[in-house]
Every structure is written in C-alpha cells, then in structure tokens.
Write a structure and sequence with these properties.
The complex is a heterodimer.
Chain A: H1 5-23, E1 25-26, H2 28-32, H3 35-45, E2 60-63, H4 69-79, H5 118-133, E3 139-144, H6 151-162, E4 168-174, H7 183-187, H8 192-198, E5 202-206, H9 212-224, E6 232-237, H10 245-248, E7 257-258, H11 261-281
Chain B: H1 3-17, E1 21-25, H2 29-32, H3 37-40, E2 45-47, H4 52-64, E3 68-74, H5 75-78, H6 83-92, E4 98-102, H7 120-125, E5 131-133, H8 138-150, E6 155-159, E7 180-183, E8 188-192, H9 197-209, E9 214-218, E10 221-223, H10 227-237, E11 240-247, H11 252-260, E12 267-272, H12 282-289, H13 293-304
Parallel strand pairs in B: 1-2, 1-3, 3-4, 4-6, 5-6, 8-9, 8-11, 11-12
Antiparallel strand pairs in B: 5-10, 7-9
Helix pairs in contact in B: 1-8, 4-6, 9-13
Classes of the chains: A alpha/beta, B alpha/beta.
Chain lengths: ~290, ~300
Amino acid sequence: MNPSLSEHCLDIRCDTIRAIGHLGVGHIGGCLSVIELLTVLYFEAMRIDPSQPKMKGRDRFICSKGHAGPAVYAALANRGYFPKEMLLTLNQGGTNLPSHCDMNRTPGIDMTTGSLGQGFSCAVGAALGSKLEEDGAVIYTLIGDGETQEGQIWEAAMFAAAKKLDNLIAFTDYNKLQIDDTVARVNDIAPLEDKWEAFGWNVITVENGNDLAEVSDAVSLARSFTTTGRPTMVILNTKKGCGVPAVEAMGAGNHNCPFTEAQADEAIRALREAFRAGADKTGEAPRDRKEA
Amino acid sequence: MEMRAAYAECLAEMMKNDRHIVVLDADLSKASGTRGLYERFPKQMFDCGIAEQNMTSIAAGLASYGFTPWIESFTPFATRRICDQIAISVAYAGMNVKITGTDPGISAELNGGTHMSMEDIGVLRSVPGMVIVEPVDEVQLRAAMPVLQAYQGPAYLRLFRKEAPKVFDEGYRFELFKADLLRGGRDLTIFVSGLPTADTLEAAKMLAEEGIEAEVINVHTIKPIDAETVRASAHRTGLVLTVENHNVIGGLHSAVLEALAADPVPAFAVGVQDRFGEVGKLPYLKEVMGLTAENIARRAKDALGRQ
C-alpha cells in the first residue's frame, strides 16, 4: 500500500468533517462511512488528471448515493481538482458544492445524482458508452444500502450483467443504517451477496470497509475482474459516521444531522492525535502539513 | 406511410452519419417502428427491456459520454412513469436526451385508458428546459427530426405512430419554436397541435361555408410556445379556440392562455375534459372526447355566439 494513502485518508475525513461542521448540518454519517473508498479511488485506482477533469477516456466515479457529495468534494480538493478553501462554501447560496453531486457545478464530478437509484443506471450507461468508444475506462459507482431498496437498482443490475459490462465496478456502502431505522428493520436487503450473485455479478465482500488496506486490496481484485464479462459489486461493511464517536453513537440519527464547528474541532483534533500516535507506533514520521 | 416508419427512416438516416446517435427501447421497438434497425445498427440500438426508469438514466449516462440517445416507449411510460428520471437524470443534469412517446392521448385506441396519457404535456411542460414537439404528419415529422437532433438539450417528441392525414406539403420547412400558420382568418384563431390538426382544418372549411373565417395555427412546439405568434393572431381576431388530444388542463390550452395572460383574449377549449381515456377505436374516441371536425366547428360557433 502506498505509504501516504493513510494520510490522504485522514485529510479527506478531516476536511469532510470541517466542511459539514462549518455549515452546522449535513449528511455526515454516510459521508464518513465511505472515506476509505474515496481515498483508494482518487489516490490509487483511478486513471484521472485533475488538470483535465473532462479528459477523454478517463476513469469515472459516479456517486449514486449523491448525499455523500461533501466527502467526494473533500477527496477532489485533496486530489487537486480545486482549492481546499472552496470546501467551506458547502451548501452556501451560489456555491459550486451543493449537498448532492452536480456535474455542471463541480470540477471532477462525473454525473449529477441525488435521486436515489438513478446514478447507478447512469453509471451503467457510462460503462456502455465506454465499451462503445473502446476507450478502456473503468466506471466506478457507489450506492447506499438503503438505496439498494430502489427498484431501479435492480433494473440496472440486470442490464449491466446482460450486456456484460465488466468495466463497471460498483460498491455498496453497507453501513446497515438508513434514515428511519436500521436497514434490516425498514426493509431488509440481506442476503446481499446472494442477490448480486444471482443477478450475474462478481461479488467481493470487504469485512471492514473502513480499513484502508482491505479496501485497497478489494479494489485491486475488482480491477482484475474487468475482463471476466461480468460487472463487479464490492460490498463494503462500513460504519456510518466512522471516525467520529459522537456521530457513530447516533445510529440512524446521523444520516443528516446538526454538527457544530466545536464538534468538528474536537473530532479533527482527536483523529489527528490518534493518527500521530498510530504512526509513531509503526515508526512512520508524520508528514508536516497544515491543519485543515 | 405510417409515422413510425418515417420516424425509423429518419433515425436510420441520422445514425448512418453519426455513430454517436443511439436509440434505446423498453421492449416496444416494434410499436415504435425501430425493430428493423437493430440488425443494421448493432452498436447503436439497445433494448433495455421493460425497465423505463433504467433506460432513461442509462441514456443520461450515455449522453454524459458524448452520445445523443433517443429513448422510446408508449407516451404514458415515456413521461409520467419516468418523470423523476427525466427531471433529474436528464433535465437537471442537462443531458442531451431525446424522448419519443408514441400513441399519445386517444391514439392508444385499443390499449385503452391505462395506455392513454392525457397529462404528458402538462407533466413535462413543468420540467425546466424541456422542449416539447408534437408533429402532425409525416412531412412535418421528417422535417422536425434533424432539427431536434441538432438541438442541444432534452426534448420530447409526442408521436402519433400510425398513418396520419396529410396536412403539410413537400418542401415544408420546420422551424423549432415557430408556429405554422395553416389558414388565415379574421373571426377567431384556432390553435391546434398533433392529431386533431386535420380535423381542425376540416372544421375551418365548414365554418367558411357559413361565412366564418377561422385562422388555424399549428403549434407544433408546445414548449417553448411561440408566444409572439400566439399573441399577434389572438389579438387580431379577438377570440381563441384551442384543440388538443390531451387534457385541457396543462397542455396546449394552458400554454396558449399563459402566453395571453398579460393581455387576455377570450379563449375556449376543445380537448379531453379532465378525464381519463377509455378503450375504443379512433372514430369512437374522437366522438367521446369531442375531437371531431363537427364538434370543433360547433365549439367555434358557440364561442362566437352563433348557432
């Protein structure tokens, strides 16, 4: 694993926390559960060029759970798509960083999403487009576990397998929570692996989707499946609100909730301290950098 | 020729010259007339099966990749069933997707009320940025399609798919956003779109025999409506009748009234009177919905206060 990956991951998590804390409210739970995935995609896996966000033949990431926008923006800013200061404009009137991803506003966003289920089909369309163009791109997409309840997800799942779109790598943020309650209690999607296998997909399960090394390995494995004739679903067992104990403790209440600047300060301090302690233990020198 | 056959010919002509034009079906390619194109354009024709929501968002994904997708289904499934996908994946995202809805309103005939959209224009008219075009006959359709293809942005083609009575002559030039004057007159203006246009012209002839000169204007582009032409004619004749194969709420009648709202002209409506459709053949359904030439003429005379 790239040694700096964990630092990028820390920065993306802290910048997400900062942006939502600055605003005072936001979809913090489902942003923090996918930070490791975004880190691996934007810093390790994807063939992209931040200086050319619309580069032909680039790999694409379509965040079908569009409410994770703030986390994607933090990843994009850290990757160099736009200045990190812009992250503090999140959801302010006139911003280019709306709560849900908007391809016409934000450099690096590949599809407008927010109405659940649709981005997944759009990713299938992009994967088909890539096949027609023969450009060798990989299309990555992320759906929520609650989003999995949308019928359109399964329409798209069927189509992607039928058309052998093996250049499509999807992820499920399986954090087990949705707005009203646990996914299991609202409308259970289990057994999830069986469902995707039955729909003709390769399935990879990541025991801890908030473990950078596990996610990195899974993405590498998924990339090796892009000649199998089948699309791939990576199920990430994650923790909603991961990294901020107070948010984690809220359970289903952390989907979209108030989160103060003081809470953000405390969370970032604790995360950086823990990181330094962990880094010291493994003998790695923490890199000098400005606090977010 | 059936409208759907002309539609397929136009698509083929365009696809032949541009591999980025793709067509997506939801198991109704036979009904849309495009079944025959699958063999000829295997990399441009895609049947998504009976999954219209997925088809629409896939089209948006393809559009994000630089393709111009045309998606097709029966009118109710190409509009109200996928309203959110049209609103978000297509229109909000600004994707260049063309939506073709076939069998609008009463033309669904034997498929009956479930398949009769009386609300599709109203639904899509309120989606920002949607262009709505309803061609009358084969000539107008053939003229409109390349223009719609060239137009950058989402558009809805409301397509009567069977053989339509001829209204336009060869050489007709289609201008997007510009209504067509079919017949001049001084006593009232009849605005009409799509299927009832031929019957409206017939009604105008009947009226002329009684000394009533009706101006007939074909509003092929219902959104954005050609407000300038609507206002100019309505203010000159001082009386408006709209004729449409759609609910009189939300469609052409509403669009014309909106154009006239600042400087109103008395206006009357022939069309579906806020009710659902029912099964039957076209002559029966025209009677039921008041879309016959006789009824259009009668309503014009009522509006003029003449018996």
